[in-house]
Design goal:
By secondary structure, the chain is mainly β. Helices cover 12% and strands 34% of the residues.
Length: 491
Amino acid sequence: MKTFYKAGIISLRSLAIHPRNLFSLIFRVLPKLLRHSTGLLLKKFGEDGCVHPASVGTSLGRMPELPQDILMDIFATLEIPDLVRVGSVCSAWRSAYNTLRDNGQYKRSQTPCLLYTSESAGENVACLYSLVEKRTYKLTLPEPPIRSRFLIGSSHGWLVTVDDRSEMHLVNPITGEQITLPSVITIEHVNPIIDKSGVVQKYELSYHTARQMLYRPSDPEHVKPIFDKFEVVRKYEPTERKVYYEPSVFAVDDLREHLHCKAFVFPETSKGSYIVALIHDPLKQLSFARVGDGKWTWLPPYTDYEDCSYKNGLLYAITIMGEIHAFDLSGSVIMVKMILGMTENVMADSIYMVHAPWGDLLNVWRIVDDEDANFDSIDHVLSTNEIKINKVDTTAKRLEEFKCMHDHVLFLGHNQSLCLSTKDHPHLRANHAYFTDDYDLYIHGYKNSRRDLGVFNLKNNISEELVSPQPWSNWPTPMWITLSLAKMTTE
């Protein structure tokens, strides 16, 4: 077999680094290659990560052809940055890339990238730092400019952003698809202040919760759950709202600094839709919406949520005190189950919940050092100095200390928390946590401060820089994203 076959495969050099993938690929495509005699030439890419079409054909001659099914077998082994690059080589490769993307065959597990912005790159440009290639790619995103938005989360390849009118959008930085989420005025605690022409001029933010369990049957909108002996909600009873402060009024671009905390996007396979979970103030309450909904649905009565995950049709949420609740959103009545009660002696600045690949539910604590931080200065820095991992025993309803991640890693920050295997992602460092800033008051209040971002050794509690010098702007805060080619339907 001619060497250009080899070159065509190795050009997508991740195969050479993943022998198992390479052997699997050879066995899949060899029969097809033996039946085909057309050559494949290696496409050259520029050092800046961009394709340079002018070089194609001038030195290599006419681009030969390969059957699309062979190209798709090869392309299916690549991570998305390489896949997008090879899809730009020629029309035949582009066709194979488009088919692979659109028919749902591409299912390769992705290594997270760090998404950030850079002032020098431009207002509409997002940068992706690849942990596999240790290089940066630049992507132009749709309006409004990414550097003018708040970034409040990323999950399954989607960013959750907030624009300068405090409205939320989903953005896929790879496909460029952008989805508008229900208006902020449909959140329980937000009321619009409208001028004579019907234009929203300001927002009123109410500081109420449903934590106070007083009964007022005349107000069915505010409810409390009634648990059975299995700690499953069987019905709801009305409650009276607990109001902590008088409402505040904010300009349309200021509300996002006082309302939005953290958001997540989860595929809801049973309905062919996506769920967006939003942790928001006052007191970090929880609301959700399905893509295509006209409004947000409030999930009272709990407060102080820090992280969310989704598995087997249940939306899990954890509070800063370690309580874990599981919401079944599939029916007309929302059911909630207490997975774990309040944990004693929680000493965490941030708390996360991760579904591990081997099936356990992990409770992760992050402790930061602020002793040397000058809170009167815009230059102060908080530093992660300890990460503790606990396994949630859902039967005994208690935590068990988890000593070592072995051949797994964590991704923590202002994004969906992840636990990945280094067997599937050999470029990652086993028993380490890759982390970014997620302390919301610090992010909003100290936008120009250096970010607490790096790689944390879980064995010796030593943190290292991800890359030096750091290329990112400090705001919007950088976050991890697992890239996806999936398109989102809103029908």
